[in-house]
Amino acid sequence: MSAPALSVFRIPDLPRIEPGADLAAEIVAAVRKANLEPRPGDIFAIAQKVVSKAEGRIVDLHDITPSPDAVELAKRADKDPRLVELILNESRRVVRHVPGIIIVEHRLGIVLANAGIDRSNVEGDEDVVLLLPENPDASAAKLKQALENQFAVRLGVIITDSVGRPWRLGTTGIAIGCAGVTALDDLRGQRDLFGRVLQVAEVATADCVAGAAGLVMGEGAEGAPVVLIRGIDAGDSDQNAAALLRPEREDLFR
Fold first, then answer.
1. Which of 90, 103, 245, 248 pairs as cysteine with 109 (C-beta 3.0–4.6 A)?
2. Entry pTM
3. Residues 197-221: pLDDT tens digits?
């Protein structure tokens, strides 16, 4: 099978998303304004920030009272104790910390810095922060259903976030939620060009798509949180982003 030819379309003119917004309706309006017609198997990659905003996952640190544990960790990590309290509330455990950063296992199972809590591209002062969606896979499934109802074609949805990696500099997009997309494509048992049976080949397809989308979304003031990706036949998979989580017993970094 030949590799797919991918097309990535930036969806312009999406309005600023406020808590309680109908995100699917806003995406549909922007897509139609751009004269794009989704085709069967297309994927909508949607930045976590707009999903979190629509779901009201905004917190004002003025409303947070840090616990003694948060105060102690904040001293060691050189962070705002109120922010550390949120990090602890969103996490299963702290994996490691150094001044300026706290690596945690998020309650969703993702290992990342500061529980994914972010201030960038969030309206308000420095005390307003944004949490990850409560259940990104459920959010993706809901958006998939709403978008399919509007466009009358089968679609995939990926909710993306940008994370660092322990062995590489820089951030890249990953899928923290997905619906209708093969998140992890297991190629073990197939043969390579020379007939050898593949032993460990698993492709993080949803993460690859999220990374490609990130090149178009940008990380700063670009204002492009939704991307349409064509060329990967999506829409039918029952997998979600949880399929991408490495079991702790196989994780050499925890």
1. 245
2. 0.90
3. 555 667 789 999 999 999 998 765 5
